[in-house]
């Protein structure tokens, strides 16, 4: 999604949620400066490094142009069910043939199953110690700036390596905007930007229930989402539907099966 198309969605989201473009831009400016100081990668670096990492881990050679299949893991209540389904289905196609993208808190659920994502799309509201562990193990970070995570960006950016920065306002300098609002649908738009031909979604329920992976502060495994979260999930589903309608990409949502 180009920025002109995204900006229409963005204006609607700002109005609907009462968010401030100025606050988003303020956090983006800080993230951009920090990445300039501590270093970041660009989209070509990400593609090249993904190819290198997968070849080293899985002991096979594959031209980077053939990386076309992605698994995107959201932090919904179906996450563990979907992970177990994938692990039990050798014939779903070898997971080694997929680039694995975790949406923020889904990282915790994947690590519990001894799966290290290739990429983590995050605004740093998941379980920080697990995000950092995955980054230390090998996960690339796609770190997102918005008006509500200014403090987290200041605190953690210098501690993260292999990071590509994104903003939900106009992209500039070290920051990209591939489209998307929540971590989950932004992970899908990242896959689109990486020339995906197939995207398997897991832990993407888009319902009224949130899991502990999405909200680490809740006491139970799952709880009723507040009104704001429910509305965010509605936007996430609509944005992924936009991808289905406008891109020649096969999208399979295991959570809906």
From TrEMBL:
Q: In which pathway does it act?
A: Cofactor biosynthesis; 5,6,7,8-tetrahydromethanopterin biosynthesis
Q: Which domain of life is it from?
A: Archaea
6-hydroxymethylpterin diphosphokinase MptE-like domain residues are: 49-207
Please name the GO terms that the record assigns under molecular function. 2-amino-4-hydroxy-6-hydroxymethyldihydropteridine diphosphokinase activity; ATP binding; kinase activity; magnesium ion binding; thiamine diphosphokinase activity
Q: Which UniProt keywords apply?
A: ATP-binding, Kinase, Magnesium, Nucleotide-binding, Transferase
Stretches of the chain forming a coiled coil according to its record: none
> An example of a Gene Ontology BP annotation on this entry?
tetrahydromethanopterin biosynthetic process
List the transmembrane segments.
none
UniProt EC number: 2.7.6.3
SUPFAM superfamilies given for it? Answer: Thiamin pyrophosphokinase, catalytic domain
Under the heading InterPro entries, the entry gives: HMPDK_MptE, MptE-like, TPK_catalytic_sf
The prosthetic group or cofactor this protein requires is:
Mg(2+)
- Catalytic reaction(s) noted: 6-hydroxymethyl-7,8-dihydropterin + ATP = (7,8-dihydropterin-6-yl)methyl diphosphate + AMP + H(+)
Return the Gene3D superfamilies for the record: Alpha-2,3-sialyltransferase
Q: Is Ribonucleoprotein found in the keyword set?
A: no
Q: What class of enzyme is it?
A: transferase
Family per similarity comment? Belongs to the archaeal 6-HMPDK family.
**Role description:** Catalyzes the transfer of diphosphate from ATP to 6-hydroxymethyl-7,8-dihydropterin (6-HMD), leading to 6-hydroxymethyl-7,8-dihydropterin diphosphate (6-HMDP).
Specify the protein name: 6-hydroxymethyl-7,8-dihydropterin pyrophosphokinase
